[in-house]
Amino acid sequence: MPRRKVINAQVSPKGSLETLSQVEVHLLSEAGSGSMYQLFRQCALAILNTGAHSDNAKTILDAYKDFEVRIHQQDRGVRLELINAPADAFVDGEMIASTREMLFSALRDIVYTENELGSRRIDLDSSEGLTDYVFHLLRNARALRAGVEPKIVVCWGGHSISDEEYKYTKKVGHELGLRHLDICTGCGPGVMKGPMKGATIGHAKQRTHGGRYLGLTEPGIIAAEAPNPIVNELVILPDIEKRLEAFVRVGHGIIIFPGGAGTAEEFLYLLGILMHPDNQDVPFPLVLTGPKSASAYLQQLNDFVGATLGAAAQERYTIIIDDPEAVAIEMAQGLKQVKQFRRERNDAFHFNWLLKIDERFQHPFEPTHANMANLDLSHKLPPHELAANLRRAFSGIVAGNVKDKGIRLIEEHGPYEIHGDAAVMQPLDKLLKAFVQQHRMKLPGGAAYVPCYRVVQTHAEELAS
């Protein structure tokens, strides 16, 4: 990406921010090279870079190699000193309000996450402990509001979508807003922005005050999907698995729009959870939707699920084509079932404690070449376990496409190899080829997509490159 204008500035939070201790400030600022400092620097740069038409984290980081952020403790709280920051984040020398809010949200989450990891209370070796950790991260970010009836709709989908698909997401968001429903997304561009933008109009028409536009992200992907300015609650989870669990714990229903590998990862994650035997009776409205032009994509995704996970998985969701109002009605009705279910079982409205999430969905997956090649992608596995491994395969593809570390691994060692049964590999290969043909792997207008993977049958017959 071309280098843009830069600016030096000093920024203090508006309103209140939890005061950092001297130890916390030292951890962030010592020598300017500690791991926590580098993590905050990357997230800060992504937030300041909101609006850039690039989904390549490495490109963004390389374009601002001389960007620095220094954290200063003062009596009234924290002050940030920004050096060589993107000038687009400022108007007449003042930082845009939404950017300032998200910048200090990033500081809050990164410091809290690091401190919590050192707490004796945290147990990252058990499923219950991991869920408790996600709960505390969300509570610290003030994302959990007790007593509020279920109305958070999570919207998943791609950042690389057509104008028609983007406009459709705004129409759906508008219908959701008219029904006083709040929006939660991955906080970036495309599908992560459209529903929020539509909902703001619906909320305004209904004079809905305090509408929530919750964005959940994680450090490895934030530079590729910088938060859109509509997000009014930003939470940065420590890794993709915590982020995905946060979505299904805090959300009450999910809408999936057209997308690419990242959307397939999210979809498989949710299906794997819903197909767990302990979750058979748990209501969780799930709708796949898009405009008429996306009907082929939705059918391809549905066919892939049928071929790999079976008809039982297909029964867990509804497909609605080109009807935003019907999507909103379906979701509103589903949320009524969620409300009734949780009342009957005394489960919290603000956090889905009853949903069983198997540990294989919770532990971070490191997409190295060895780990990708060793994934067990076999029909012999129970469907929810196969879904977990397919989710990991797509997670690796996302890393190779847009994450700084993944891109560098591909540059050094070549494409990942994904091995498995022909009965799984053939539908996977077909779906991935469709994503490439439909330009769903990268932002429109960028360089031609070069696959970061090779799909290989167990018997070493190469299907795609």
UniProtKB/TrEMBL annotation:
<dbReference type="Pfam" id="PF11892">
    <property type="entry name" value="PpnN_C"/>
</dbReference>
<dbReference type="InterPro" id="IPR031100">
    <property type="entry name" value="LOG_fam"/>
</dbReference>
<dbReference type="InterPro" id="IPR021826">
    <property type="entry name" value="PpnN_C"/>
</dbReference>
<dbReference type="GO" id="GO:0008714">
    <property type="term" value="F:AMP nucleosidase activity"/>
</dbReference>
<dbReference type="InterPro" id="IPR037153">
    <property type="entry name" value="PpnN-like_sf"/>
</dbReference>
<feature type="domain" description="Pyrimidine/purine nucleotide 5'-monophosphate nucleosidase C-terminal">
    <location>
        <begin position="336"/>
        <end position="456"/>
    </location>
</feature>
<dbReference type="InterPro" id="IPR027820">
    <property type="entry name" value="PpnN_N"/>
</dbReference>
<protein>
    <recommendedName>
        <fullName>Pyrimidine/purine nucleotide 5'-monophosphate nucleosidase</fullName>
        <ecNumber>3.2.2.10</ecNumber>
        <ecNumber>3.2.2.4</ecNumber>
    </recommendedName>
</protein>
<dbReference type="GO" id="GO:0047405">
    <property type="term" value="F:pyrimidine-5'-nucleotide nucleosidase activity"/>
</dbReference>
<comment type="similarity">
    <text>Belongs to the LOG family.</text>
</comment>
<dbReference type="GO" id="GO:0005829">
    <property type="term" value="C:cytosol"/>
</dbReference>
<dbReference type="InterPro" id="IPR052341">
    <property type="entry name" value="LOG_family_nucleotidases"/>
</dbReference>
<dbReference type="Pfam" id="PF03641">
    <property type="entry name" value="Lysine_decarbox"/>
</dbReference>
<dbReference type="InterPro" id="IPR049788">
    <property type="entry name" value="PpnN"/>
</dbReference>
<feature type="domain" description="Pyrimidine/purine nucleotide 5'-monophosphate nucleosidase N-terminal">
    <location>
        <begin position="10"/>
        <end position="116"/>
    </location>
</feature>
<dbReference type="Pfam" id="PF14793">
    <property type="entry name" value="DUF4478"/>
</dbReference>
<keyword id="KW-0378">Hydrolase</keyword>
